[in-house]
Design brief:
By secondary structure, the protein is of the alpha/beta class. It folds into 5 domains: 92 residues, MurE/MurF, N-terminal domain (Udp-n-acetylmuramoylalanyl-d-glutamate--2,6- Diaminopimelate Ligase, Chain: A, domain 1, 3-Layer(aba) Sandwich), CATH 3.40.1390.10; 209 residues, Mur-like, catalytic domain (UDP-N-acetylmuramoyl-L-alanine:D-glutamate ligase); 133 residues, Mur ligase, C-terminal domain (Protein-Tyrosine Phosphatase, Chain A); 220 residues, Alanine racemase (TIM Barrel); 124 residues, Lyase, Ornithine Decarboxylase, Chain A, domain 1. Helix content is 31%, strand content 24%. It contains 28 helices and 43 strands. Strands 21-20-19-22-18-17-43-23-34-42-39-40 form a 12-stranded mixed sheet, with helices on both faces. It has a 9-stranded mixed sheet with strand order 9-10-8-11-12-13-14-15-16. An 8-stranded parallel sheet has the order 30-29-28-27-26-25-24-31. Helix 8 crosses helix 9 and helix 12 packs parallel to helix 13. It is globular. The two termini are 28 Å apart. It binds pyridoxal-5'-phosphate. Pyridoxal-5'-phosphate binds next to helix 26 and strand 31.
């Protein structure tokens, strides 16, 4: 739907500067995602760490003419002659107001979903259950925040027959705004878990906040077996229709009479408002069962019959939430998105592809299946797809499916190919000749696109390290929450990003605007530069032989001794370089590297003042034991030494020298010592070194079962007959050994891995490339996945057995283990 800029001005109550007539079709809050500048309205949002107003000039250059701002730029009339600035007090509230007014235009059922878990699954399953006969508009992926919800609701259009939106909150006071925007006619609370509990006084308080979504809804849906939820709802005088569900209480509107789990599915018998019904769900886990019950209720409320419901339930598909980045064959990178196929999620995936810098300037290719989206005429749908793909830089289009083939004319990409099926595609010359491309693979499940990925992915070894890029961002934000908004941040991605792979981690961090990346040696920095990383990069262990490289690639060295300083100055002078930024390290107690903060300072300052080849950009020191309270006195002493030494250095110069000492544990433990900048290392990778707990797990090391065999009592397994078998056993071999970084000391039943969620001990000595595990009594087969550590088995279990720290386990994973990156 299109709004004139005049209309928008009135709807959000803005004061308008500029008088150009414009139509607005797209809303933008992140300058990096710009696609259709002419029809875009940019909201300059202010967050703690960023200010959208800073991107106005750039967006104007790229063609955007409409801006919602709280501060109109000076000289707007001369600098931005044909632009409109809509001035409001608070730009986020204006965005929310616009979405709210847009929502008012629709007199259709709107489902609002909140809860601690399952929101996205319930939303996607409802879409699967309803989209056969209704045009559904829903939140893309998990857009459920203060910004995500207005952007989602904005997608409602004239064809929409039902809207389904998620509402997520993390703090008190947030739900009111979301409720006003969504105005649900049916409001659903999936469940109440422990997420974000730290921001609420009690579980009841969190429940009350979530239930604000229920006010004014015609129908509310909740689980009465949860006493907190039930009591909180009862304490409201809610006037609409309450639909409860329960496994125990026959008085519930939806009473689940029986749940029968079979091998691959679950049979559920229920009574809904005195109607009997039954469906078979093709999943067996508890969460899926609860989610399906909620979906059944909403579907029945919308008038779908019990028979139709059970037919559609049987066809429910898992919801893939992730975008995966994989190394492909022949110089290709694969971005695999098996999330439900529709235009909005296509746009998000294209945006993701675009935002990852690619040093080699490789071409962008899209492999897309038919899109099933009832309501839209295929001509229009595929024209929109073509437009999007073109604007987002796709130069090669490969369409799979009869519908795309029939509408090939609508696709206006220079290089385009069409196939009726995946089989046709993979047997074609087009497929065989994919070379040096970044390929986005996006297909509806029934097309079987996994075959495409499987064939294109580089096959080395069946052991992989999965790296969750979202978790990296969550950990980053967790640590940022201890820091003042203005404090800068260095992210330590030395040692190949603590094993996670520095290039992809650096891309993610750069996208989240960290101030500095730090690596150990110059070569690591060069790799980052060659892969398109433009952030500031610090080199912690600069080699004397690599100064020229550092100058060429703008890699800023740490300087810890007079010998290093002299050599660096000499090298810079030889190249005619001036003011090259360096980072001065002071030794306050680690006694590893660094200048003496008392005795070296005068000489250091004198030397720095009498040259202009290098310039101190920052000064820092490193805590010996910020992870343990036992060393608090020592840390205080280190800080005092650093404070004095660094202040002395600063006093000698006119320019600002950034001071920093906090590492991950320091950020959490001594936020008052954050100074100008902090250095985040292990915490970024999800491990809290203060308590050995996992914040958000980033890396999961996985492999598969190669072979299984029965071994009788008395026999042995592996080298030197170490693995004695004491009962008749089933032993599985897995393709991971000490050459992959699986420490030999884990063998001989000292540790275990997980096979289908169950513990399997290592039997006998771990070999170079293979290990044997005891799977006696575990339901498994050859080809099944084995988790060495990760989401279900914390890496700290391994490091504890090995009597070491998680850093060592992570950094020991060898290069031959393929890294796979994904994000939700
Ligand atoms: C590795 C490193 C860090 C990061 O330490 P963590 O404990 O991983 O947070 C910070 N500063 C310096 C100088 C480092 O070498």
């Amino acid at each position: 739907m299109i709004y004139t800029i005049e209309k928008v001005t009135t709807l959000i109550g803005a004061r308008r500067y500029g008088d150009r007539d414009c139509n607005v079709g797209f809303i933008l809050t992140d300058s990096r995602s710009l696609c259709f500048p002419e029809e875009t309205l940019f909201f300059a949002l202010k967050s703690e760490r960023n200010d959208g107003h800073n991107y106005i000039a750039e967006l104007y250059r790229r063609g955007v003419r409409n801006f919602v701002v709280s501060d109109v730029p000076n000289n707007f009339a001369s600098d931005y002659p044909d632009a409109n600035f809509l001035r409001v007090v608070n730009t986020l509230e204006a965005l929310q107001r616009l979405a709210e007014r847009h929502r008012d235009e629709f007199n259709i059922p709107i489902v609002g979903i909140t809860g601690s878990n399952g929101k996205t699954i319930v939303k996607e399953w409802l879409y699967q259950l309803l989209s056969d006969d209704m045009y559904v508009t829903r939140s893309p992926r998990s857009y459920n925040s203060q910004i995500g919800v207005p952007l989602s609701v904005w997608l409602l259009n004239k064809q929409t027959e039902i809207g389904i939106f998620e509402a997520g909150i993390s703090e008190p006071g947030e739900m009111l705004a979301l409720r006003d925007i969504i105005q649900p006619t049916i409001a659903v609370l999936t469940n109440l878990g422990s997420a974000h509990q730290e921001n609420f006084k009690s579980k009841e308080a969190k429940c009350r906040e979530k239930l604000i979504l229920f006010h004014d809804a015609k129908t509310i849906v909740y689980n009465m077996d949860d006493e907190i939820i039930n009591d909180t709802v009862e304490s409201y005088n809610y006037s609409g229709e309450k639909i409860t569900w329960s496994f125990k209480n026959p008085k519930a509107t939806m009473f689940i009479k029986s749940v029968e789990k079979r091998k691959n599915d679950t049979v559920i018998n229920y009574n809904f408002k005195d109607k009997e019904g039954k469906y078979i769900l093709p999943f067996i886990d508890e969460a899926s069962i609860s989610n399906s019950i909620i979906c059944a209720i909403v579907t029945l409320c919308l008038g779908v019959s019990t028979d139709v419901l059970s037919r559609r339930m049987a066809k429910l598909e898992p919801v893939a939430m992730r975008l995966e980045v994989k190394v492909g064959q022949h110089g290709c990178t694969l971005i695999n998105d098996s999330y439900n196929s529709d235009v909005n999620s296509l746009d998000i995936a294209l945006d993701f592809m675009n935002r990852r810098p690619d040093h080699k300037g490789r071409r962008h290719t899209l492999i897309l299946s038919d899109i099933f989206q009832s309501g839209e005429k295929p001509e229009n749908l595929y024209r929109d797809v073509s437009d999007l793909a073109y604007k987002r830089g796709v130069v090669k289009f490969i369409g799979v499916g009869p519908e795309l083939k029939a509408h090939a004319d609508q696709i206006q990409i220079p290089e385009k190919f069409f196939f009726s099926s995946v089989e046709q595609l993979i047997n074609s010359e087009v497929f065989r000749s994919l070379r040096d491309e970044v390929i986005l693979i996006k297909g509806a499940r029934q097309f079987g696109f996994d075959q495409i990925t499987e064939l294109l992915v580089q096959k080395v070894h069946e052991t992989i390290l999965e790296v969750n890029l979202n978790a990296v961002v969550k950990n980053l934000n967790w640590y940022r929450s201890f820091m003042k908004p203005e404090t800068k941040l260095v992210c330590m991605i030395k040692a190949n990003a603590y094993g996670a792979g520095s290039v992809e981690i650096a891309k993610t961090l750069q996208d989240h605007r960290v101030d500095y990346l730090a690596v150990a040696v110059a070569d690591e920095g060069v790799t980052l530069r060659r892969n398109g990383i433009t952030s500031n990069i610090m080199i912690m262990n600069p080699e004397m032989t690599a100064f020229k490289t550092m100058f060429d690639y703008e890699l800023e060295p740490e300087v810890y001794s007079f010998r290093l300083l002299e050599a660096l100055i000499k090298a810079a002078e030889k190249e005619g370089i001036t003011d090259f930024p360096v980072h001065i390290k002071l030794d306050t107690g680690m006694h590893r590297l660094g200048f003496d903060p008392i005795n070296d300072m005068d000489k250091l300052i004198d030397r720095l003042k009498h040259q202009n080849a290098v310039i101190p950009r920052s000064v820092f020191s490193h805590f010996v034991g910020s992870d343990s309270d036992d060393f608090d006195d020592f840390s205080a002493n280190q800080f005092a030494l650093f404070d004095a030494g660094s202040k002395k250095l600063q006093a000698a110069f006119d320019h600002k020298i950034l001071r920093h000492i906090d590492n991950s544990a320091g950020i959490e433990h001594f936020p008052e010592r954050q100074l100008d900048m902090c250095r985040l290392g292990l915490g970024l990778y999800g491990i809290n070194s203060r308590n050995n707990e996992i914040i958000n797990n980033v890396s999961t090391l996985k492999t598969t079962i190669l072979q299984m065999r029965h071994i009788p009592v008395g026999d042995t397994v592996g080298y030197s007959r170490k693995g004695t078998i004491e009962h008749d056993s089933v032993i599985a071999a897995i393709p991971i050994g000490y050459a992959d970084g699986l420490n030999r000391h884990l063998g001989n039943r000292h540790c275990y891995c997980l096979v289908n969620g169950q513990k399997a001990e290592y039997v006998g000595n771990i070999c170079m490339d293979v290990a044997m595990i005891d799977v006696t009594g575990i339901d498994c087969k050859e080809g099944d996945t084995v988790e060495i550590f990760g989401d279900h088995l914390p890496v700290t279990v391994l490091s504890d057995v090995l009597d070491t720290i998680p850093y060592e386990v992570l950094t020991n994973i060898s290069d031959r283990v393929k890294r796979i990156y994904f994000q939700d």
